[in-house]
Amino acid sequence: MPLASSYPLADVFWTMLVFFAWVFWIIIAIRCFSDIFRRRDMSGFAKVMWSIFIIILPFLGVFIYLLAYHQGIAERDMASAQAAQTQMDEYIRSTAGSGGGSAAEIEKAKGLLDSGAITQAEFDQLKAKALAG
Predict the structure, then answer these.
(1) pLDDT tens-digit profile of 61-114?
(2) Would the pLDDT of 1 be above 70?
(3) 39 and 53 within one domain
(4) Within this chain, do residues 11 and 26 fall inside the same structural domain, yes or no?
């Protein structure tokens, strides 16, 4: 019990607050670095200078970067999310294929058979082809 009495509850809360602020600041700094290096409108020299500024004067550098480019960060995040969504949609379309797969082809062939446009043998061939590939 001597350990608990030498570290009061207020100190525990203060330590938790400081730790949370430290982790929060690290997340913000990483976010600023990732934004700096994914920008296409900033020269390499400017990226290096911002990086050095953030490393030399961490708090001031991060806060000034956030104040100067806060709107651009949000726009780049939105553009990145939209590009990822478009890429995922294209992947799903290419994977799913057009026409609904073999079931849709068999349904079309059945409709042709019912209308008399193809014979039963042709329907069986179309069905086998749809099921094979």
Answers:
(1) 999 999 998 888 888 889 989 999 999 999 888 877 655 677 788 888 889 889
(2) no
(3) yes
(4) yes
Q: Are 85 and 94 in contact (CB under 8 A)?
A: no
Cα(128)–Cα(133) distance, integer angstroms: 9
CA distance 27 to 21: 10
Q: Can you give the residue range of the structural domain that contains 115? A: 100-133
Q: Name the amino acid, one letter, at 20.
A: F
The structure tokens listed for 115 are: 């209308």
Domain count, the chain: 2
**5 pLDDT higher than 70:** no
**Are 80 and 115 within one domain?**
no
Same domain, 19 and 83: yes
Q: Which residues of 66-87 are buried (b: 16+ CB within 10 A; e: fewer)?
A: eeebeeebeebeeeeeeeeeee
Shared-domain flag, residues 92 and 104 = no
Please state, rounded to an integer, the average pLDDT across all residues of the chain: 87
